[in-house]
Amino acid sequence: MKNLLSKYGKHFWYLPLIISLWSWWTFFSLPIDWGDFSSPLFLSAFTYYFFLKCTGRLTDKDDPFVE
User: Read out DSSP for 40-67?
Assistant: First the structure.
């Protein structure tokens, strides 16, 4: 797993980005009921976290989830 992340980890944040965009699209495209607001919000937060982590802008020292 570590080898996979070191090889393709820089581009891993694209997957949460696609899912996040799809989630926002479904949130705004529902005609009557606007749907669940927390799902697109949390997916966007995960996308931003993975973007920072995978591009090296968030180091292990500054990461609040690494002990």
Answer: HHHHHHHHHHHHHHHTTSS-TTT-TT--
